[in-house]
Every structure is written in structure tokens, then in C-alpha cells.
Amino acid sequence: MPNRLDELKKKVKALIPKNVKVKDVDIEGPVVVIYVENPQEFAESGDIIKMLAKDLRKRITVRPDPKSLKPPEEAKEIIKQIVPEDAKITNFFFDEENGEVIIEAEKPGVVIGKQGSTLREIMKAVGWSPKPVRTPPIKSKTIEDIRNYLLSVKEERRKILRRIGERIHRGCLYEDKWVRVTFLGGSREVGRSCYLLQTPESRIMIDCGVNVSNIQTSPYLYVPEVQPLDMIDAVVITHAHLDHCGLVPYLYRYGYKGPIYLTAPTRDLMVLLQKDFIEVAEREGIKPPYGSRDIREALKHTITLDYGVVTDISPDVRLTFYNAGHILGSAIAHFHVGEGLYNIAFTGDFKFERTRLFDKAATNFPRLEALVMEATYGGSQDIQPSRKEAEERLIAVINETIKRGGKVLIPTFAVGRSQEVMIVLEEAIREKKLEKEITVYLDGMIHEATAIHTAYPEYLNSYLRDLIFHQGLNPFISDSFVNVDSQSKREEVINDQSPAVILATSGMLNGGPVMEYFRYLAEDEKNTIVFVGYQAEGTLGRRIQKGWKEVPFTVDGRREVVKVNMQVETVDGFSGHSDRRQLMGYIKALSSKPEKVVTIHGEESKCVDLASSIYKAYRIETRAPYNLETIRFI
Asked: From the DSSP assignment, how many helices (H) and strands (E) are in the chain?
């Protein structure tokens, strides 16, 4: 490593203009970091970073020498004097790890100034590299807590990133060339998604989830390919749903010390959902597989990547994230193995259709020899109605319930489905598509998850961004939405005789506040329960969908039976998963046709059906592996 670092330092110093004073060159995680005493000179020297990145084939970042930075409190006052008042600065966050100051403002354009003039002035005056962002309309406690925590462990994180960097740049040892994937969970089933990508040099884990219908069922992490855990080079998380990330902190409890690669929204939502996961388990008398300390340990090792950024994550593997269209920050993980040897992508959960929140999943990859794709709705009969039909049906069901004087209970996932439904309901209320004005109650983590959505507008589709920023209409902050933040408020909602819509977690009725609403509303035939998301086998949601009329409940240690007299409706079309037509259409739309397609994340019949249909339609080699099976790709 010292020789490689010395070599990099020499190259960097040879390429940088003489007027830029380089203090040090280091490797932190996958990034080559250049510390300079006069960063403003570097900023004004054109496309040096692009030139360096191209020449070194590494990600490059420039940071000011920590000694050249003004103390945060002093820097704050200087920035306030430089930036015009009409920018309406609301907050500062000093990211010492990156030498950046995040400036939250209602008008970030004013902070930037004409052609970036104000940013350059700020950097010259305080040393910090300014990063203006729009003030989120809803404050997220999760994001604030994460920022503060990472700031509190900055020295430890620097050591962690240095160690990760040494591991990534350790050099290749073997001349053999092969790529294989071991399927550790989520194959011919939905839940506990976990896959191990291996080459002679690297072991990379893609996702590590729990089985939401039985949290005691975990991926096969004890098999020889995975042990010892600290021999894994990287964990890559496609998105924040628990069946893909719920067991990540467990890895750190049992010896993993490496990085987690994910998008920034996935990191924040992952922490939110993991904390809720252990709280719900403890409330229900189930021992969770890890604690909050393990969540913090995992957070310490996170490395966030934007879509489209190519990143070294091991000696012979580069990772690029692409939009998956499923939930906020969800990503298709594309791996480039060797110097052009092989390219394989894992879709995670994806939506090949533009939705109220996101653009459809990306299809344009430079090269793609193999694709590992979800098959949740891969059966030949799994055709969902259009989003327009789904929205009209939901509004009709709500109107029918309002006429009866009942309440509509929508069990929903805190992340993704909730925000989609919220946008539809806000528009229906605003455009008077509902019989009468009603209140929409949000219970569980929906309000906090929505706050995180407002913090990352760049991940939303262009229509929604335009609505929020240029038309001044943010559907997430409508007066029609009321956050239920206490037990007394919940009881008030249940006892109120007025018609209403209640969005509550969890989406499959396997815990969370929705259980209380269901228990009290189920026996009244005036009320309706509407399923808008996938209900896995073994969950209470699936049983009610199937027509169960009596449901056993445990309340304060006593067993009671709840009669289901309420109307039960399923409105397909809101799912964040692609239906059968979209799954087939995705293969057709790929810019680079794969030689192999592997179907996972679906019931057995659906994985097999989709694999067979892809082969018949496109003559591509397909597989629907079992858990514990290993497929060699080259």
C-alpha cells in the first residue's frame, strides 16, 4: 500500500498546476483525497478533477487542509455577511470529514450567485467548500441525528475509510478469471434477500434482509462462502426496505468491519426502518437480532454514492448505481468485473413505469452480460391495472365508504407506497374528487419518511420537482394530512365518528400501529380496509386478502378473536414492483442485451414462469435458482 500511495502522490503532484499548494494526498475508502492549502485556486483551475480522474481511473475529491478552515461559528457569521439576506438561510451543517459546509436555504440559487461567484467568495473567505441545498419543508429528525452522529465519530470514520481504502487498493493476486454468485436468501421466495458475488479477488454481498413474515428466518450467513464475515470486501444495499437491509447491523455484531455502499436517501431510510424494526420486535416480546449500538456501528461504515458514479469497491470490481424507480434512493447495482472482463447487474426491487414519485427504472448500461432481476409479479397472470385506473379505483372505494359513514384503513409501507398514496389523495381533495372534505391521518413512521423525501428532491421525478419548486405546490405538506404522534391521538381518531382515511404502518399487517386500527375498525361493516401493496405469504394481510373472517389477536397477554366484517378491497397498480408486462418489457428495453438472466425475489412459480418466458421470448439463457445454489457466470 505505501508504494501504491507514493505512486499516486507523485502522479497527482505532477498533474496539478504549480499555483495549487498540495498539502497531502490520501486514500479514504474508494476516493483519492487531495488536501490543498488554497482550494479556491483549485476551483478556478478548470477541469483538473476530471482530468485526474480520467488519468488515474480513480474517484478524486479535493478538500481544504483542515488547518486552513475557519472555526464553524466564525465561518457561519462570515457566510451570513457574504450571502444576501433574501437567500433565507435556515441552517448550517459543517461536514468536517469532507471539508464541506452544507448551507440550507429557501433560495439556494442566491447562495450560489451568478455563475457560482458567491460560492467562490465563501470558499475564499472561510476555506470550507460550500454546498447549498434547499431547506426541506418538513424537518427530519433522522437526518439531523445521522449528521450529528457522523460528526461525533469523524476521527474514527477517517481511520475506517483509510483501512477500507487500503483494502480496495491492495492489488490483484490471482491470474484466474471467474465470476459466480451464491444465493443466500430471497430465491424462489420474497424476503431475506441476500446474494454473494465472488471473483478470485473479491467477495461482495448484495443486500442482507429479514423475512418480514418471520424475523427469525435469516439468510444463510453461516455457509463457508460467507465466513469469516470480515473477509467480505463490501456490502451493497439496493434500497431501504427491511427485506433487503434489515439484517445489515447483525453483520457488524458478528465480525464484519467493511463498508456499506448505498445512496444517501437509502442510508437515512435504512436507519429509520432498522430502529423501528427493533422497537416493534421488543414491543411484541421478540428478541431482535441486534440492537441500536449495532445500527450505529453499521452507520459508521456507510459510504454514499450518487446515481451514475463509477466507484472502485475491491481490487477488481467497480460499482455504479442506477435509478430503480422503486422507492426513494432505490438503485440497480451494476458491477464491472476486471478490466472489461464481465458486467453483472442486480435490479433489487424496481419499477419500469413512471410513477407519481419517480422516473422509471434505468435501462441504459454501457455493458451487461448478466442480469439478476426480481420476479415478485413474474407470473403470467400478474398484470396490474394502469396507475390511472388504480387511482380512480382507490378514490371510488373511498367515496363508497364515505357514503356509508365509515373509515378507510390503508395499511401501507412507510417508505414509497405511503407517499404515492398521499400525492393521489392530496390531488383528489384539492380537485374535489371526493364526496366531502376529509382528514387523512398518518400513523407510524410515515411522517418522518415523508420528511426524508422532502430532503432529497433531486431523487424525485421532474414533474414533482417542478410542482414543488416552480409552482409552489408541495403535496406532502397539505393541510389535509394530520400526523398521529401519540396514543391519545390514535384513540381520538378511532373514536371519532366522522369518515376519514387512515394510512398506517406496517403494510402487511405484521406489527405497528395499523394493528390497533384494524382491531377496532374490523367489526364495523361501514369501514373498509384497502391493500395497495404486496402481501407476502404468512402475513396477516395475505390472510385477510384471502377472506379470513376471524383473526386471532393477542392483547395484554390474552388471546381474543376479531371478527372481520369491514369491506376488504385490494387496489392493484400502486405497487413499487413491476408487473409481468413491465418485467418482460424491461428486458426488451435494455440497451445492452444480457447473455444470462436470473430470476429471484418471487414465489417459486413466479420465478420459474418469468425465467421460462424470458427464454422463450428472447432466447436468453435463464435460471431461477434455489437458496444456497451457486451459479458460475464465467
From this structure: 21, 28
Task: Identify which of 66-80, 130-144, 164-178, 397-411 has the greatest average pLDDT.
Answer: 397-411
- Say if CB 102 and CB 95 are below 8 A apart: yes
* DSSP H or E run through 63: strand 59-64
Average pLDDT for the chain: 90
- Output the pLDDT for position 512: 83
Same domain, 269 and 318: yes
Residues in a beta bridge with 531: 570
Which CA distances in Å does 254 have to 1, 248, 250, 577, 590? 27, 11, 7, 32, 39
Domain stop point among 17, 33, 67: 67
Q: What is the pLDDT of residue 3?
A: 57
Residue 553 above 90 pLDDT?
no
Pull the grid cell for residue 213.
413474515
With H, G, I as helix, E, B as strand and everything else as coil, classify residue 319. strand
Q: Which domain holds residue 289?
A: 147-380+577-632
User: Any idea what the Cα angle at residue 42 is, between residues 41 and 48, rounded to 5°?
Assistant: 145
**How much is the pLDDT for 282?**
86
Phi, psi (deg, nearest 5) at residue 170: -75, -10
Q: State which amino acid sits at residue 242.
A: L
Q: Judge contact between 210 and 242, C-beta under 8 A.
A: yes
User: pTM, whole model, 2 decimals?
Assistant: 0.91
Q: What are phi and psi of 495, to 5 degrees?
A: -80, -20
Residue 1: the pLDDT is: 47
Cβ(609)–Cβ(384) under 8 Å?
A: no
Q: What whole-number distance in Å separates Cα of residue 599 and Cα of residue 614?
A: 10
Cα distance between residue 426 and residue 503, in whole Å: 13
386-396 average pLDDT score? 93
Q: Which residues pair with 561 in a beta bridge?
A: 552
Residues 457 and 596 in one domain: no
Shared domain for 181 and 325, answered yes or no, is yes
Q: What is the pLDDT of residues 34-48, one digit of tens each?
A: 888 776 666 555 567
Q: Comparing C-alpha atoms, which of 534, 530, 626 is closest to residue 579?
A: 534
Residue 142 lies in a domain: no
C-alpha cell at 122: 465563501
Pairing of strands 311-314, 500-504: unpaired
**390 HSE (CA, 13 A, CB side):** 22
